[in-house]
Specification:
The protein has one domain. The radius of gyration is 19 Å and the shape is elongated. By secondary structure, the protein is mainly α. About 5% of the residues are buried. About 60% of the residues lie in helices and about 0% in strands. The mean pLDDT is about 85. The two termini are about 25 Å apart.
């Protein structure tokens, strides 16, 4: 059975998805159940820096996995 992407590329796509999911999970929380109480925890470095970087890294890995052709294939 022939697939359009080699197994290495599919593994890279799944690893990119895992990176993106990890980034979104790190963004969860920081809210307050009482609307009159401010929770400064929502503005920590994990939510503002690390999680967006993980999401962007996941997107880059997925784009690389889709665009990458293994050595020798695609060259004529």
């Amino acid at each position: 059975m022939n697939f359009s992407l080699p197994s290495k590329n599919v593994k890279l796509i799944f690893s990119g998805l895992v990176l993106m999911i990890a980034g979104y999970v790190l963004m969860i929380g920081g809210g307050s159940s009482d609307p009159n109480v401010f929770n400064p925890e929502m503005f920590n470095a994990r939510r503002l820096v690390i999680s967006p970087l993980l999401v962007i890294a996941g997107i880059v890995v997925i784009i690389y996995a889709i665009m990458h052709t293994p050595g020798g294939e695609g060259k004529k």
